[in-house]
Amino acid sequence: VEYIEEDEDAAPGNGEGISAVGPLFPSLRELSLEYTPKLKGWRRMSKDCRTTLPFPWLNALRLDGMGSEVVLDLLQGLLSLQVLSIYDCEGLKEIPEWIDSLTSLIDLWIYNCPKL
Hints:
With about 120 residues, the protein is mainly beta. It has one domain (about 5-110). The chain has one helix at about 70-75; strands spanning about 5, 30-35, 40-45, 60-65, 85, 105-110. The strands form 2 sheets. The chain has a 4-stranded parallel beta sheet with strand order 2-4-5-6, with no helix packed on it. Helix 1 links the parallel strand 4 (about 60-65) and strand 5 (about 85). The longest helix has 4 residues, at about 70-75. The chain is globular, with a radius of gyration of 15 Å.
């Protein structure tokens, strides 16, 4: 899996799809992604090329065995995130400066990231 996404053109109905009105997973509170080293991110594109935040209410995120630090950059808009756990991410070289913008973040756990 490289991307978790919805293509509005592939959505059933009159072509407006869910992406025209809201996020990818509007009620998701906790997410654990384990051993998906090819995952590059998640996205939802509308016909006017706007992207929406996929997880507006996400409180806890666990990334385990991710092969790419690209995924970390996609966390910027997760303003409800309170707990972030990162395990065994060999490609992670640094914590981005924007991590301070995650104002709800209470716990940050990082384990076994040898390049960090």
